[in-house]
UniProtKB/TrEMBL annotation:
It comes from the Bacteria. Keywords: Membrane, Transmembrane, Transmembrane helix. The keyword Membrane applies. InterPro entries: Bact_Transport_Assoc (IPR052529), DUF418 (IPR007349). The chain crosses the membrane at residues 12-29, 49-72, 84-104, 110-128, 135-159, 195-215, 236-258, 278-295, 316-336, 342-363. The keyword Transmembrane applies. This is DUF418 domain-containing protein.
Length: 389
């Protein structure tokens, strides 16, 4: 063991970005009633707002922060003269175990996806940044998905087959399922549908790409000294806005060039997956750059109030599910039947304020959130990790 691990110094900007990721993911979950909404979605204004501006973007930010955190951990160990690669691999095992328990209640748990994919970051730590960004660009380009689109357009049966995740019965099942059957279903069927979704929509490759971009941003010190990157940041902002607009409004003209659903059932839908992923990633980038701009300006003091939430991302992510899944699901209060979506979102906002207050008070007495401490203690194999201040 590398000695008793001390509590690291905090970068409040990075903690603020983590907080925004947590807030966005949580509000999407509230909008979705923790997935039950998709049993009978309502194409109203709320649906349009959340699917356009939040869904996929908050998750993308979470994955970007994951890659950034990988660099910070590895770099911190490097400066101590230790190799953290093996420890990081074990850290992913611990995270997967936390996710395994969490996924019994909420099968949409993302920890069990991030943890195994996080292992793929290890060999990239010492790779040249240009190579890393090239790999990230290829992953974002989604060559396999592009090949499937062309194959579907040419009439290939395999490319036009209905995706496995379309058969997901989870949202309807959760409406009335008792606790025991739900737990059993989540062990296998729930997880398999989730993984098929990530594979078949190309999101798995997007996660890896954002991991690598987060690693590169950490290596460049973009969030350690943001004042050094003002010009690059503003150029990137313009570029990402253009990409987002092209991905959003260019989809329909491109889809018109492909055969319709009668001739090629999946061609246009696969194109939607491809360009939807580009839209999500580019809009997320716009959000990050705007947050950094505000943080470097008059908004710093206000934004830093969110930083304590960012330090408890894991704890709050799991806690939110433990509280709200029993509220919405059939084995609990069954609120999907009687709680209006707008009211649920207002309750969600109130719950976020409460989390912000709790986090601020918590860190006056403790170094880590409860699950953050468990994760760190498990990583180092010791309970001597400092907890109380």
């Amino acid at each position: 063991m590398d000695g008793t691990p001390a509590a690291p110094a905090r970068n409040l900007l990075i903690d603020t970005l983590r907080a925004f990721a947590l807030i966005g993911v949580y509000m999407v979950h509230m909008f979705e009633q923790y997935e039950i909404y998709w049993a009978a979605p309502n194409q109203n204004l709320t649906h349009t707002i959340f699917t356009t501006f939040f869904m996929g973007k908050a998750f993308s930010l979470l994955t970007l922060c994951f890659g950034l955190s990988f660099f910070l951990l590895m770099n911190r160990a490097d400066r101590r003269g230790t190799n953290f690669a093996g420890r990081f691999a074990w850290r992913m095992v611990v995270l997967a175990l936390i996710g395994l328990v969490h996924s019994l209640i909420y099968r949409g748990d993302i920890l069990m996806v991030l943890a195994p994919l996080g292992l793929l970051l290890i060999p990239f730590y010492r790779v040249n940044t240009k190579v890393i960004l090239t790999v990230a660009a290829v992953l974002l380009a989604q060559p396999l998905l592009a090949f499937q689109i062309l194959s579907a357009a040419s009439g290939a049966a395999w490319a036009n087959a209905a995706p496995h995740h379309w058969g997901d019965t989870g949202p309807a099942f959760y409406r009335d399922a008792a606790l025991g059957p739900m737990l059993t279903w989540n062990v296998w069927q729930g997880q398999s549908f989730k993984w098929w979704f990530f594979i078949e929509t190309g999101r798995l490759f997007q996660i890896l790409a954002l991991f690598l971009i987060g690693l590169s941003l950490g290596r460049a010190g973009v969030f350690d000294a943001p004042e050094r990157f003002v010009r690059q940041r503003r150029r990137a902002l313009i570029a990402l806005i253009v990409i987002a607009l092209l991905a959003r409004f260019g989809q329909a003209p491109l889809a018109a060039l492909l055969p319709d659903a009668t001739a090629a059932p999946m061609a246009r839908k696969l194109l939607g997956n491809l360009m939807g992923g580009w839209f999500d990633a580019s809009v997320m980038g716009v959000y990050v750059l705007l947050i950094v701009e505000a943080y470097q300006g008059v908004g710093r003091k206000l934004l830093e109030r969110l930083a304590p939430m960012g330090r408890m991302t894991l704890t709050f992510y799991v806690l939110q599910s433990l509280i709200w899944v029993p509220v919405f699901y059939g084995f609990g209060l069954g609120a999907w039947k009687w709680l209006p979506q707008g009211t649920a979102l207002l309750l969600g906002l109130g719950f976020l304020v409460a989390q912000g207050v709790v986090a601020t008070l918590w860190f006056k007495r403790f170094h880590y959130g409860p699950l953050e401490w468990v994760w760190r203690a498990g990583t180092y194999g010791t309970v001597r990790v400092p907890f109380r201040r």
